[in-house]
Records
---
Amino acid sequence: MSDVTLSVKGLRKVIGKREIIKTIDFELKKGEVFGFLGPNGAGKTTTIRMLVGLIAPTSGSIKICGYDVSKDFTKAMQNIGCIVENPELYPYLSGWENLQHFARMLPKMDEERITEVVNLVGLQERIHDRVKTYSLGMRQRLGIAQALLGKPQVLILDEPTNGLDPSGIREMRQFIRFLAEKEGMSVLVSSHLLSEIQLMCDRVAIIAKGKVIHTESVSALLSQQERLIWRLVPHQTGVNMLKELTDFVKEEGESVITFYDDSKVGEWNKKLIEAGVTVKEMNRKLPSLEDLFIEMTGGEAID
Amino acid sequence: MINLVQNEMIKLVRKKRLLVVTIIMAVLISMFTYAQFRESERVQERLGTTDWRTTLQQQIIDIQNRLSGSQISDEWRKQLEIRVSQQQYYLDHDINPAEPGAPTFVRGFIENSIQLLLPLMIMIVAADLVSSEHSTGTVKILLTRPVQRWKILLSKYLTLVLSVSFLLLMFGILSYVISGIVFGFKGWNAPVLTGFTVEAGELNTAGTHLIPQWQYILMEFGLAWFVSLVVGTLSFMLSVLIRSTAAGMGVMLACLISGTILSSMVSSWESAKYLFMINLRMSDYLQGMAPPIEGMSLGFSLSVLAIWAAAALVISFVSFTKKDVY
């Protein structure tokens, strides 16, 4: 078998007369973090629900480690762990009891594995408290612990940093990288923030209106899409020089925008300075998701 | 499967559902015991005797007085006439229908609660077995485990069967113990008449025979268990179909209450006998009370309820395994 852990082909979902998911195809490889990027309502969560068997697809196939979700549900589910939307657990049980509860639903259950995942997500101190006393970050971690119980090959996290504070977000990112790199899992992360995908994913699929419009490695996407904002004095001389150096130059009020090109930026800067132009500001900037969509869909609005 | 049922039982216990229902039962039983106690005191005062024959005689006279009044509907008249002939039969055969003691209280209490009180208690437990998973959102984790959906639902249903049995047991124990403190614990072997049949508004005593009270109570509990299970199954179905626990409870409550109202006024609407809520008063068949609609019998009610429960189960399983979860 290849190192593809999750493959989705021609996925469609029609509810009533509306086609919610038009065509979704993608593959997840072992040890990679895959981003699922799209605005709210693009069909991210619906797709994820189909991946984990909560919703039956109208057509198309989903294979997890070679097992078809609709035909071989039990085997497919043994290889997947997920959090769909918020990590919702039984508030009247303790964290430990929640884990025990879900462990009992797995073919093999032992207390050791529970201890292991608790240590992995760092919840040792509060694990015997009731879940209703947990903070959102702790619930998120417990949710991940629950998803990891069965040692899955594929982990699906729907908006994992939603509602976390900055340090929680950073921890979560490191943890997701750790799972992919050290544990060899494939992790699917959905988000509506490009900055977040950029920081933790290897590859990204951009989806809008129920379609995958672009799949690419994050580094490639960024090198194409990342911009550099300049503030130059005198302005006009600087703009003219930049126009000679690169194709895309856009003026926006006081500043000039070019693409960011890691290998050439230093050189441009040097040339500007040598020509007596003062570089007051150089700022790398990610395009907003909206800009990206407009570019990729050729000016179509997201809605 | 045992693991799954264990999960469900843990959740049910930790949600304190069983505890709450048990406490409600204890409180109600205490109230009824006290009411019963005051009632017997009052009767004693009025008649100045503790002899049950006098009491029974007095009751017969009371009913006959009511029968001679003109403001009485035909159905009600029939009911009362049957009751008089029944009591006359007890008197003639020198059998005390209300032998004092806890077992008699248990018997009377279950007769009175089989139609509304017990089903309500069961409903509290059954109505949120499935819908609570939806309202907490945990259904998403539950259904993405490597366990097929029908197994999850079956484990929940088995949990319901266990809880119904547990609650009926508690009901029996509580009513026996609490009333026993007041009335004494004796009377298990008191003779009770059963086998009355009602044919065309006439009491037929041909098949009557005496059985010890404990046997009679056991039969009643069997019927009560069956009725509770059917009501539980119906609430369970509503819990699958309607994701809000409150709405499910509301529908069930409306059915149960309409059942009590309907059974006193539907004798002319014959097809109503196929409604489940008309068939809940099964202990009446043992007592020999006239059924709300002509032609209903123990066997008839058992089959009607069984069909309702089976249909509810089929609907629950089909819906639960097929439905998309959002």
Note: Chain A has a mean pLDDT of 84.
---
Amino acid sequence: MTFKILAAVILGIITGYFYFPSFMVQHIGLLIDVGLCLLLLFVGIDIGMQGNILTKIKKMGFKVLLVPLMVAIGSIAGAITAGIFINLPFNEAGAIGAGFGWYSLSAIELSKHSAQLGTLAFITNVIREIIALITIPLIAKYVGNYEAIAPAGATAMDTTLPIISKSTDGSIAMVSFITGVVLSSMVPILVPLIMSLGGI
Amino acid sequence: MNILLYLLILILGAIIGLKGKLKGNIKNRIATVQNLALLFLLFIMGVKIGLEKEILLSLNTIGFQGLILALFSIIFSVLGVKLVSATILKKNKEVEVNDL
């Protein structure tokens, strides 16, 4: 899938660079909107099919929700702080941070604002996933099990879950899954919301 | 406006997924359509990037910025969880003791 994702983006870049019909350009926004809605419906179905997540949270105790909450705050605050150094407006930096490592959705949403911002969101969140894959076992060993979920962000429910599970134990894997579901549900809401704060 | 729409669609999807009792066959088809929708959107995003040639020229800068953003997000997330992990750990130990 990773290969297909990269192939789709590169194929798109080549198409756009060489021969994208200019009369289509004005319809790109609409295409993205329709595609996003379709994608979100499937993401919702995916989340629903995981069974009643509320029962799982109740079993673990509501305190486990502190993990996704702190990851969300940390990701957004961290990105805004980074934005100060690289001269990026706080709403753009914060919105990229609110991608929580889910590079496809945050990048597509932000590419509606500008292709440049979409590219940055894509690259940032791809790098986040790569760093997560490398550092999760180290963080589990030297910092702590719950902390090992943090780099994963929204991917804690799928792509990075096997590594978290291997580096920690079954109950942490469950917390990781819950964290991923909660963060994934927040991405489509938080990214446009934080982005819109720039107008104030 | 968009945000409300997104939220409604997510909830609608979740209800379908939760109540629909979707069988294996349909599940597979959903996964296929989902992947196609995702790949199509990424293709369109690529088209937007390709249309703005200056982005391709500044990929080095964007890559560096992305690295800084990702690093700060991860470090702050780990520190954030570290602040609360002791609290959660205590709670889970209590549960284990009660289970015995």
Note: Chain A touches chain B through 98 residues (CB under 8 Å).
---
Amino acid sequence: MITISEWKEMSKEETLAELLERIEKSKLNAFITVNERAIEDFKKPENGKLAGIPVAVKDNISTKGMLTTCASKILHNYIPPFDAHVVERLKQEGAVIIGKTNMDEFAMGTTTETSYFGVVRNPHDLDRVAGGSSGGSAACVAAGESVLSLGSDTGGSIRCPASFCGVYGLKPTYGLVSRYGLIPYANSLEQIGPFAACVDDLALLLEVIAGKDERDSTSAGKGFKFKPENRSYRIGIIKEMTGDEHVISSFNEAVELIKREHEVEEVSMPSFKYALAAYYIIAMSEASSNLARYDGVRYGLSLDELTSWNEYFSRVRAEGFGDEVKRRIMLGSYALSAGYYGKYYLKALKVRTLVIDDFKKALGKYDILISPTMPSLPFRIGELADPLTMYKADVNTVPINLSGIPSLSMPIFERKGLPVGLQIMANYFEENRILSFAKWLEEKIKAVS
Amino acid sequence: MITRDDVLHISKLARVKLGDNEVDKFREGFQSILEYFEILDEVKDDVEPTFQVLPIKNVFRDDSIKESLERKEVLMNAKHVENGYFKGPRIVD
């Protein structure tokens, strides 16, 4: 891992060439596209908060003139004619976009195994997954193949790979970062967010990408600036968010450290029993509508012969989408179809209200909530063959997206040589509190390790 | 119980053509996932649904003219183009 301050110490053209060579020789498969003009971009004299800093961008975020595939065959040849808002911001601040990172196809997965371009391997154990869906963005930061990166988080897609790869990752409050140019999967749930090697870098990247953008109608119009606060917090441990013996022993070790300076209690969230089902129904329903745009006419995979509309459309999608995407589009269409809307979709939206109410109650009593990020250590490649088993791995991360609050995953104590992540949650737009606490814990963990 | 016919019906709704060998594979997954979703039947109905989480409604902007993308850029990703337009398949059979 390379922090911004370390990069600035050594930053010169050769260091960038070394970084590019590391990507070239890497076994991780973290990148789908490497920016061929990275060295040229680096040579340009730039000013700004990220001048000369390599940043990798998840491949569902539009980059003008640079391939953006969503790790799908249906977009394998798509070159966006415009930049996403966050990419404009990176360029304005002088960042060097190093490449586009591998991911689960259309961000639908927890392991990056659904990518059309192959699985991303975990830098700590090449036989294990890097997590998903932003697997490439987490792995490249963990392995020093980039300094910073952007991912997107619909149900844990930043926090899961951050946890599995041992880096810092943040899902901002819904509406803090513009989604303009993010290729949509489930609009009401997802946010773009940063990955970094330390809390200060994470906060700086958030500062760059946060803010008003009128091209996203859900943009909240708030910016962000990190002002670390140094105080004692009231902290709730969420009872329903748990993990296996390895995860829990690491988590408890961190809790013991936290207890020395903060007040810690357990808190129960009864609605979370229903959160996973509600999350998947909402995500699949929104996906079935969003992915209707891939018609094989305007961009992406096309067939040679233009037959009739229904035939052409159904064939392009049969050839272009992988199994997990097909599964979610089909189940989403089903959940929204006549006779089932009330049973599935509307019911899921009601559960979302209950989840928000549980968070409101808990965050009325506590400043911060914590839990393990993932219920287990990184999976072996191929371990989660059954789709429902994979969905259940998201149990600790999805309630956050249903409610829209911010949440960060940070590395705590390794078990069996593998990273474990701790999840930190706070109220809407309280990223400053989350990052302040994470910075405090980062220092404490460093002191005892 | 989800049948093969159910899967074919769902695939038609979603406009995803399935091969014969795919129907059984998806049927199994649908069965277990939809069974899992049954847990929501326990939830009472007297709750308001939340469609989106921010208290934002009807965001307007000025209706001012701005530069748009060049036609060439818009068409550059399309395979079938005619006279500066996208060319699509027949809508009416």
Note: Chain A touches chain B through 67 residues (CB under 8 Å).
---
Amino acid sequence: AQDRRLTGKITGADGPVPGANVVLKGTQTGTATDAEGNYTLNIRGANPVLVISAIGFKTQEITVGNRTTANVTLEDDATALSEVVVTGYSTENRRDVTGAVSTVKPAQLKVVPSANVEQQLQGRVAGVTVITNGQPGTSSQVRVRGFGSFNGNQPLYVVDGVPTQNIAFLSPDDIESTTVLKDAASASIYGARAASGVIVLTTKKGQRRAQKLSVSYDGLFGATDPGKSLPILNPQEQADWSWQARKNDLFQAGKTPDASSFAGIAGGQYGSGLTPVLPDYLLVGSRSGLAASAVDLTAEAAKYNINSANGAIYNVIPSNKAGTDWYGAITRVAPMMRHSIGFSGGTESSRFYVSLAMQKQAGIITNNDFSRYTLRTNTEFDITKKLRFGENFQLAYISNKGVLGGVGNQLGNSTNNNSSSSSDENEVLSAFRMPPIIPIYNSFGGYAGTAAPGFNNPRNPVADRQANANNGNFNIFGFGNAYLEYDVIPSLTLRSSIGGTYFSNYFNSYGRVQYENSENNTTYTYSEGSGYGLAWTFTNTAAFKQKFGRHDVFALGGIEALNTGAGRNINGSGQNPFSTDPNYVTIGTTTPGATRQVNSGYGLGNKFYSLFAQARYTYNDKYILTGVIRRDGSSQFAAANRYGVFPAVSAAWRLSSEEFMKNLPWVSDLKVRGGYGIMGNSNGLSATNQYNLYGGGAGQGYDIAGTNGSINSGFNRSQIGNPAAKWESSITSNIGIDGAFFNNKLEVVLDFWQKDTKDLLYQLSLPGVVGVRSAAPFKNVASMSNKGIDLLITNRGTLSGDLTYEVTGIASFLNNKITAIDPSVPYFTGGGTRLSTAAVRNQPGYSMSSFYGYNVIGLFNSKEEVAAAPTQDGAGPGRFRYQDLNGDGKIDADDRTFLGNPIPKFTGSITLTLKYKGFDLNTNLYASLGNKIFNNQRWFTDFYPSFTGAAMGGRVKDSWLPTHTNTTVPIFESASNFSTNTQANSYYVENGSYGRMQYLNLGYTFPAAMLSKVNLSRLRISASATNLFTITKYSGLDPGVGGSADTNFGIDVGNYPVQRGYNVGLSFGF
Amino acid sequence: TGQLSGAQLTSKAGLDGLLIGAYAQLNARGFSQSASSFNWVRGSVSGGDANKGSNSGDFNALTPFQTFGIQPTSGEVNAKWNAMYEGISRCNSTLRSLASAGSDVTAADKARISGEARFLRAHYYFELKRAFNMVPYVDETKDYGTGIEAVPNSADIWSNIEADLTYAQTNLPVSQGAVGRANKWAATAYMAKVLLYQKKYAAAKALFDQVIASGVTSDGKKYALVANFQDNFNAAKDNSSESVFAIQAAANTGNSDNANPDLVLNFPYNTGSNGPAGCCGFFAPSFELANSFRVDANGLPLLDGSYNSAANQLKTDQGIASSAPFTPDAGPVDPRLDWSLGRRGIPYLDWQAHPGLDWIRDQTFAGPYSPIKFVFYKSQDKSLTDGSSWTDGYSAINYNIIRYADVLLMAAECEVEVGSLTTALSYVNQIRTRAKTGAYVKTAAGAPAANYQIGTYTSFASKEAARTAVQFERKLELSGEGHRFYDLVRWGTAATVLNNFIAYESKLLPVGYTGAKFTTGKDEYLPIPQTQIDSQGKSVLTQNPGY
């Protein structure tokens, strides 16, 4: 047959579709539409069929028949490469994006029942690392493309156009889109606060068309199981091992045990014979280690007293020979529920979305509860045809009870919201330190504890948790903005927006008088306090968008002023009220006088003033060039260095629109992107860095008049200023490919990136001679490099019949390295508890927060081995043998080395969705590889002298003995020295890699036909399990270990674990 | 934001505030227990007055102070360095601001303020000198950005310390408006001590003679021994005639850092409500110290060292449960024994009789004794202690950096070396007489709690005998007050005395003293902190020998 000419126009819902592939089915013949969506193609054959595909649209086949013109309207197909992405101060089509941008579908996020949206991002975005813990309402360590700086690495959140540092107030069901801007080309429009990446969130809006009200409900009910305790020695084992420790001591001294060897162990609780005997009573008044026959409970009941106001404490504590499960006692199966109702609707000239949502979630630790109630109203009205007014507003009430650890400043201007709970000596740790022979309660219903001698100083964690029952923390957030938009001409829109966060916080806490412990708090203290803050942003922009034939131009200019948050707080405390009934206690009812204290604080916030512009030019949908420039001024810098100018350029080339690619019909879309830019950063810098300041007050006071009860205020230089500080800048470069293949069945987004930060601001510790109580000035002293690869691959298709699948793999490779620090201070250290040396060293050439110490190459097996080895303080059989790195024949500080770091080299996930008719099955496997954990808990659980008498971990059973030398666990003995438990060394460093099935979710969506009969538009039920299993070699509770600062994290002292949960969900709409 | 600019502190009140800040650092608040001017760790634990106490693992960064295994990387060493230089920086800050003093500051004010600042600076440098020996000397002309980091530790600083004290002596008034301020006589006594440390006995003696003859406290009390030895350790009797210069402690001031934060660990353990604070069992007096209080038939100490012999050593309850019977030692002892340490069966201030093991955290590591000198009385709980923190151990008891008994004994040393043995004898006997005539620890029934015997020396047979007696009297009178190690080093007897001490004590407490050994030529001084060497460079800071 003869070739003939076919023309036509391809359109979509929004008009012409340029760049659509038009291919004659069964041949290599094809073309692409031009900028107006037109095409021309020579066709042949008896019954020609066209296959038309375009990014963002469903592929269609049409039979041409005898037509010479074939116009086709394509249906939208939402795939990863086709969405509208919200970037910068505008939205753009994924097709046009030239920077490194990732999006996450809200439906995927909602499956994870955590309270904070940021937690849900774990493993969802290539290039974003999230380290979180299991505490509801906690903050997480969210890092976009590594760690650009020593502090202030938290990404900037932009919610409906308003920048903030904290998104705890958001209800997950309100979120419509989540976009992560990762490189300078995409993020630098946000200027100085964007250097750590930007996460742009938008909330749901109504639709602008005449419609009836639509109502949606989403509900989730579930529970989290606390899991099991780590192995600890049971009462008999603990007694036996205490005896073994004494034998080991004697072994070290070259002696053998005799009948007198066991006196005085554990306060005499187990007797002093050749074998220990578990007592029936641990404490009766001042007697201990008693058999039941020695105690007349009726007589003791009369003497029993746990209130020091009534005289000396007289506790009666029986033993629990079966062993108390302390972890079990402070944990519970923790219920959660989430409800949200959304109302949306609109008219031709308005739209609205209103939602009410609540989430109540109990922590697996008792008396740790989170609840949040939110109200959101998003509206927009046309005042005239050209003038629109809109607002997005959210009110949130968050109550957090019994919180473990700090969660950072919630005002929203803090750039370090890392939770500190993992590195705290909290009740999670207490549960592994409290000897199981001690019962929770004494013989008469009060608390039992280490007041019984011989068990050292752990505090009864159940009592400590119970004391938290009435401790509350209540926050109210008002967040939002109001804006006006004016279309000067159709292609030019002016927008003015003012928004911000108002925050208020209230807390109270009751500190009980303890009697059950060896180290008791003997004063009842009540404290309460409050604070408020206001952060605001005023933005004015002009946006121009116009197509001229094959030329597509977009330009944006803007001016912005903001304050990151100014506020005040006040808190007070008092002691020993007449009654400790919580209904009675106020500061006013505490004892009057000097023990009533009040304090307050005042923060000014950082003020910014910025000008910015962005322009994008697209030629024929093939070549895209984008430029961004922003000039930021910050009050954090002295006048001379206040302003910084930060440009970025990026370009993309759509190969698939080129003629030579038309012959490859399996390539649906292929775009190569490249970007380069500079971003400024001042996140870590204090507001007053430029000034020399003096402070002090009571903390630096002195009783110069010798009164014994009062002081004169003293002052000291509290800060050394540095007016020369200037902007940190990070240079990012990014090369990426966006590709869609086989009719969009396979999509690939691949980015290679590098981020080099220079002039890093850091408070290098001052040499001692300067006086270290002055805060050191932030100086531009260091540089850092981050490199990585981000990869997203999606494959979707039909397995058979109605069974479809979609599988998405996300992979992020990260390499972080400090490249330079001021030569005057070659490194700085931090982290670790109870060790004589710091666990972490930050030094050029190594990753941030690298663990540092001696490398244990084994245990000494004999005195001869010790004698033949390099000189090592405290060396002995069964103790650590350190590596003599410099080979000088002695082990000293010079033999310490880097032992790994907590930054995962790889994080990624595989998400699989299967759909069959109304059923859908979702699962996500997350992996974090190549990170190390400093298991500081081992100090407490593996060494006898680490508070001798406290509970010991199960590893002790594998400890070194002359008869058991094939082990890594050191000898269980009293000595505490350089070769046992005082030094940071590789014994504490564990492989923190893990894989976890984050969820497995099965849902069923009822067919629309059935629902229409009951006037429902949507009905879905689902059931899921979260954190179903974790594969890891890490011996602690949970390998997800964060920390309070980026310069020392991954140290596990009392990490709040993420555990397995189950939930069911219901959602419907009408 | 709660902070001030420097210009706001040039008024008289502002300058005085800076000066108060310099005094505040005497207790090394916010650094470490071991960093304080009290020196209970370096002075008393390293000196053998006491062992670290508690148990083996608890705060084990302090254990190397009793075994002489201190590493340059030790955070404790760095804390001492940082704390003392923080004090110096505050003195320098005061002196710098004085240059731009406001119009309300009179010449007399300037003399006083600069005198106090230089007195304190001398104190902090003296602390550094005896702890580290070679340290960089920075004064108010050097600051951050003006070369302070480049000052090496190559020059000896005794002359700088003397210069500051001479200035203070000249410019400080005798009488101060507040009793806590250093006065002319405090500066004179301190100067004499500094001279004694340099073995400039004649010059030191001249000053001690003046202090003894004419010295008065800042509030005008003539220096004298108080009637009862134990009143030096009682908050209610602070700032007595015996207090030459003290760290002023105060409780319930809104911040527990004003209430001996350096001493909070030094109480018996797990006492419940029957004893003070209940934490943490540190600073346990040594067996060897307790034995030292044994006296002969004349009530004189056993200067031949035989107090450690099997026959003479004190009977203890080591290894005996509190529920098992025990009778305390019945032999003759110096009455200061039971005001210097707590032991089983003897009334522990006004609390109760010490129950032994139940109040000891780990007897096999700490031994049977509890500290008592800086422990508060039951009657003072929560009034002269601060209840605002995790323990009641924050007390208002002043620590005398120099007390008059110390002055007399230092003067006695000078007399032995360059003066009269008779005068030395009289000084020592003044101390012993007070110990004899003061109140003894009594049982509930009012009888002496032990067989207390004390007599005075009739004469010193020789210079050597006198030296031995004076030195031993210092051990007894000033035990647990942070002096002993520094005394041993300046006497040149550290290696002998401490290695003998270790040999004795390690038999009783093998775990705590494993590997302990004092090495001459190294252990006299702490290592220069590795952190500081790394920070300032090896060309600026030279490490001490042996490290």
Note: Chain A touches chain B through 108 residues (CB under 8 Å).
